[in-house]
Request: fold
Amino acid sequence: MNDTNQTWLITGSSIGRALAEQYASAPEVGQVIYTWRSKEPTFGSPKVKPLQVDLTSELDIENLVGNLDKLDGIINATGFLHDEKHKPEKAIARFTPEGLVRSIELNTLPTALLAKHARKLLKASPSSTFATISAKVGSIEDNRLGGWYSYRASKAALNMMLKTLAIEWRIALPHCSVAALHPGTVESPLSRPFTGRHHNVMTPEESAGHLKQILDGLNPDKTGRFWSWDGSELPW
Reply:
Protein backbone atom coordinates (compact mmCIF):
# COMPACT_ATOMS: atom_id res chain seq x y z
CA MET A 1 0.00 0.00 0.00
CA ASN A 2 1.24 3.50 -0.85
CA ASP A 3 -1.21 5.33 1.40
CA THR A 4 0.63 6.81 4.39
CA ASN A 5 -2.49 7.34 6.48
CA GLN A 6 -4.21 3.99 6.32
CA THR A 7 -7.27 2.99 8.32
CA TRP A 8 -7.60 -0.64 9.38
CA LEU A 9 -10.53 -2.45 10.95
CA ILE A 10 -9.46 -5.40 13.10
CA THR A 11 -11.89 -7.53 15.05
CA GLY A 12 -11.45 -9.26 18.41
CA SER A 13 -9.68 -12.28 19.86
CA SER A 14 -6.20 -12.43 21.35
CA ILE A 15 -4.62 -12.55 17.88
CA GLY A 16 -6.78 -9.65 16.74
CA ARG A 17 -5.64 -7.54 19.64
CA ALA A 18 -1.99 -8.35 18.93
CA LEU A 19 -2.52 -7.46 15.27
CA ALA A 20 -4.15 -4.17 16.25
CA GLU A 21 -1.10 -3.26 18.34
CA GLN A 22 1.30 -4.17 15.53
CA TYR A 23 -0.63 -2.23 12.89
CA ALA A 24 -0.85 0.77 15.20
CA SER A 25 2.96 0.78 15.41
CA ALA A 26 3.32 0.85 11.60
CA PRO A 27 4.18 4.36 10.33
CA GLU A 28 1.86 4.07 7.34
CA VAL A 29 -1.18 3.41 9.56
CA GLY A 30 -3.06 6.41 10.91
CA GLN A 31 -5.88 4.64 12.70
CA VAL A 32 -6.90 1.15 13.81
CA ILE A 33 -10.53 0.45 14.66
CA TYR A 34 -10.62 -2.55 17.01
CA THR A 35 -13.94 -4.19 17.82
CA TRP A 36 -14.73 -5.95 21.07
CA ARG A 37 -17.90 -7.58 22.35
CA SER A 38 -17.87 -8.32 26.09
CA LYS A 39 -14.76 -6.80 27.69
CA GLU A 40 -13.23 -3.50 26.59
CA PRO A 41 -9.46 -3.76 26.08
CA THR A 42 -6.88 -1.06 26.67
CA PHE A 43 -4.12 -0.14 24.24
CA GLY A 44 -0.92 1.82 24.63
CA SER A 45 -1.26 3.51 21.25
CA PRO A 46 -3.64 6.44 20.69
CA LYS A 47 -4.03 5.19 17.12
CA VAL A 48 -6.27 2.34 18.31
CA LYS A 49 -9.95 3.10 18.77
CA PRO A 50 -11.83 0.25 20.55
CA LEU A 51 -15.53 -0.05 19.72
CA GLN A 52 -18.10 -2.47 21.10
CA VAL A 53 -19.66 -4.36 18.22
CA ASP A 54 -21.70 -7.55 17.86
CA LEU A 55 -20.27 -9.03 14.66
CA THR A 56 -23.27 -11.32 14.24
CA SER A 57 -25.56 -8.28 14.01
CA GLU A 58 -25.92 -6.81 10.54
CA LEU A 59 -27.18 -3.54 12.02
CA ASP A 60 -24.09 -3.24 14.24
CA ILE A 61 -21.75 -3.81 11.30
CA GLU A 62 -23.69 -1.46 9.04
CA ASN A 63 -23.46 1.29 11.68
CA LEU A 64 -19.77 0.59 12.31
CA VAL A 65 -18.74 0.83 8.67
CA GLY A 66 -21.18 3.66 7.96
CA ASN A 67 -19.36 5.89 10.43
CA LEU A 68 -15.98 5.48 8.72
CA ASP A 69 -14.68 7.94 6.16
CA LYS A 70 -12.11 5.57 4.70
CA LEU A 71 -10.96 1.99 5.03
CA ASP A 72 -7.86 0.31 3.64
CA GLY A 73 -7.87 -3.08 5.33
CA ILE A 74 -9.98 -5.49 7.35
CA ILE A 75 -8.72 -8.40 9.43
CA ASN A 76 -11.50 -10.43 11.00
CA ALA A 77 -9.92 -12.35 13.86
CA THR A 78 -13.05 -13.25 15.76
CA GLY A 79 -13.90 -16.92 16.07
CA PHE A 80 -15.42 -19.67 18.15
CA LEU A 81 -13.99 -23.03 19.18
CA HIS A 82 -15.99 -24.03 22.26
CA ASP A 83 -17.85 -22.81 25.31
CA GLU A 84 -19.47 -24.46 28.32
CA LYS A 85 -22.35 -25.80 26.23
CA HIS A 86 -20.60 -26.67 22.97
CA LYS A 87 -17.42 -28.73 22.72
CA PRO A 88 -15.52 -30.01 19.66
CA GLU A 89 -17.09 -33.35 18.69
CA LYS A 90 -14.67 -36.24 18.45
CA ALA A 91 -17.43 -38.44 17.00
CA ILE A 92 -20.65 -37.82 15.09
CA ALA A 93 -22.59 -39.14 18.10
CA ARG A 94 -21.64 -35.95 19.94
CA PHE A 95 -22.87 -33.66 17.15
CA THR A 96 -25.71 -31.23 17.96
CA PRO A 97 -27.58 -28.88 15.63
CA GLU A 98 -27.09 -26.08 18.15
CA GLY A 99 -23.32 -26.52 18.08
CA LEU A 100 -23.20 -26.30 14.29
CA VAL A 101 -25.42 -23.21 14.18
CA ARG A 102 -23.33 -21.50 16.85
CA SER A 103 -20.09 -22.29 15.02
CA ILE A 104 -21.38 -20.92 11.72
CA GLU A 105 -22.83 -17.87 13.44
CA LEU A 106 -19.46 -16.91 14.94
CA ASN A 107 -16.96 -18.34 12.44
CA THR A 108 -18.66 -17.69 9.10
CA LEU A 109 -21.34 -15.01 9.34
CA PRO A 110 -19.18 -12.03 10.45
CA THR A 111 -16.95 -12.26 7.38
CA ALA A 112 -19.94 -12.18 5.05
CA LEU A 113 -21.44 -9.16 6.81
CA LEU A 114 -18.15 -7.27 6.90
CA ALA A 115 -17.56 -7.86 3.20
CA LYS A 116 -21.09 -6.79 2.32
CA HIS A 117 -20.96 -3.48 4.15
CA ALA A 118 -17.29 -2.57 3.70
CA ARG A 119 -17.21 -3.17 -0.04
CA LYS A 120 -17.72 0.48 -1.02
CA LEU A 121 -14.97 1.82 1.25
CA LEU A 122 -12.49 -0.89 0.27
CA LYS A 123 -13.17 -0.15 -3.39
CA ALA A 124 -12.31 3.51 -2.83
CA SER A 125 -8.91 2.58 -1.40
CA PRO A 126 -6.04 2.51 -3.92
CA SER A 127 -4.84 -0.78 -2.40
CA SER A 128 -6.94 -2.69 0.11
CA THR A 129 -6.89 -5.97 2.03
CA PHE A 130 -9.69 -8.21 3.28
CA ALA A 131 -8.51 -11.10 5.44
CA THR A 132 -10.02 -13.49 7.96
CA ILE A 133 -8.43 -15.82 10.48
CA SER A 134 -9.47 -19.31 9.42
CA ALA A 135 -7.97 -22.62 10.53
CA LYS A 136 -6.04 -25.44 8.92
CA VAL A 137 -8.74 -27.85 10.08
CA GLY A 138 -11.10 -26.04 7.68
CA SER A 139 -9.18 -27.46 4.73
CA ILE A 140 -11.15 -30.33 3.20
CA GLU A 141 -8.11 -31.72 1.36
CA ASP A 142 -5.92 -31.59 4.48
CA ASN A 143 -8.44 -33.34 6.74
CA ARG A 144 -6.74 -36.57 7.82
CA LEU A 145 -7.75 -36.86 11.46
CA GLY A 146 -11.51 -36.25 11.34
CA GLY A 147 -13.52 -35.07 14.32
CA TRP A 148 -14.46 -31.52 15.28
CA TYR A 149 -17.44 -31.61 12.94
CA SER A 150 -18.99 -28.22 13.62
CA TYR A 151 -15.74 -26.30 13.85
CA ARG A 152 -14.35 -27.87 10.68
CA ALA A 153 -17.60 -27.29 8.79
CA SER A 154 -17.87 -23.65 9.84
CA LYS A 155 -14.26 -22.94 8.85
CA ALA A 156 -14.71 -24.76 5.53
CA ALA A 157 -17.78 -22.58 4.93
CA LEU A 158 -15.70 -19.52 5.80
CA ASN A 159 -13.04 -20.57 3.32
CA MET A 160 -15.64 -20.97 0.59
CA MET A 161 -16.99 -17.52 1.43
CA LEU A 162 -13.54 -15.98 1.02
CA LYS A 163 -12.72 -17.88 -2.17
CA THR A 164 -16.02 -16.84 -3.73
CA LEU A 165 -15.54 -13.25 -2.60
CA ALA A 166 -12.10 -13.13 -4.19
CA ILE A 167 -13.55 -14.28 -7.52
CA GLU A 168 -16.20 -11.54 -7.45
CA TRP A 169 -13.80 -8.84 -6.34
CA ARG A 170 -11.18 -9.63 -8.99
CA ILE A 171 -13.39 -7.53 -11.24
CA ALA A 172 -15.42 -5.44 -8.79
CA LEU A 173 -12.45 -4.51 -6.51
CA PRO A 174 -9.35 -5.17 -8.62
CA HIS A 175 -7.05 -3.45 -6.11
CA CYS A 176 -8.19 -5.60 -3.15
CA SER A 177 -6.38 -8.69 -1.88
CA VAL A 178 -8.57 -11.33 -0.20
CA ALA A 179 -6.97 -13.93 2.06
CA ALA A 180 -7.73 -16.74 4.50
CA LEU A 181 -5.14 -17.07 7.27
CA HIS A 182 -4.18 -20.01 9.46
CA PRO A 183 -2.58 -18.55 12.63
CA GLY A 184 -0.92 -21.74 13.84
CA THR A 185 -1.41 -23.14 17.32
CA VAL A 186 -1.76 -20.11 19.55
CA GLU A 187 -1.91 -19.97 23.33
CA SER A 188 -5.23 -18.61 24.57
CA PRO A 189 -7.81 -19.48 27.25
CA LEU A 190 -10.06 -21.14 24.66
CA SER A 191 -7.33 -23.17 22.96
CA ARG A 192 -5.48 -24.20 26.13
CA PRO A 193 -7.40 -27.51 26.63
CA PHE A 194 -6.37 -28.62 23.13
CA THR A 195 -2.73 -27.51 22.87
CA GLY A 196 -1.14 -30.04 25.22
CA ARG A 197 0.25 -32.30 22.47
CA HIS A 198 1.48 -29.43 20.30
CA HIS A 199 5.15 -28.50 20.59
CA ASN A 200 5.07 -25.34 18.48
CA VAL A 201 2.62 -23.21 20.50
CA MET A 202 2.97 -19.50 19.80
CA THR A 203 1.96 -16.45 21.75
CA PRO A 204 -0.65 -14.21 20.09
CA GLU A 205 2.10 -11.66 19.47
CA GLU A 206 4.29 -14.21 17.69
CA SER A 207 1.44 -15.39 15.49
CA ALA A 208 0.37 -11.81 14.72
CA GLY A 209 3.92 -10.99 13.63
CA HIS A 210 3.95 -13.86 11.15
CA LEU A 211 0.49 -12.98 9.83
CA LYS A 212 1.34 -9.31 9.37
CA GLN A 213 4.40 -10.30 7.37
CA ILE A 214 2.15 -12.34 5.06
CA LEU A 215 -0.39 -9.53 4.76
CA ASP A 216 2.32 -6.97 4.02
CA GLY A 217 3.41 -9.12 1.08
CA LEU A 218 -0.03 -9.54 -0.49
CA ASN A 219 -1.09 -8.01 -3.79
CA PRO A 220 -4.11 -8.58 -6.06
CA ASP A 221 -2.20 -11.25 -7.99
CA LYS A 222 -2.22 -13.36 -4.79
CA THR A 223 -5.89 -12.84 -3.96
CA GLY A 224 -8.16 -15.73 -3.05
CA ARG A 225 -5.56 -17.95 -1.40
CA PHE A 226 -5.23 -19.72 1.95
CA TRP A 227 -2.04 -18.93 3.85
CA SER A 228 -0.44 -20.62 6.85
CA TRP A 229 1.39 -18.56 9.46
CA ASP A 230 4.75 -19.71 8.09
CA GLY A 231 4.04 -18.28 4.62
CA SER A 232 3.20 -21.59 2.96
CA GLU A 233 -0.01 -21.97 0.97
CA LEU A 234 -2.65 -24.38 2.24
CA PRO A 235 -5.11 -26.35 0.08
CA TRP A 236 -8.74 -25.37 0.31
Notes: The longest helix spans residues 149-172.
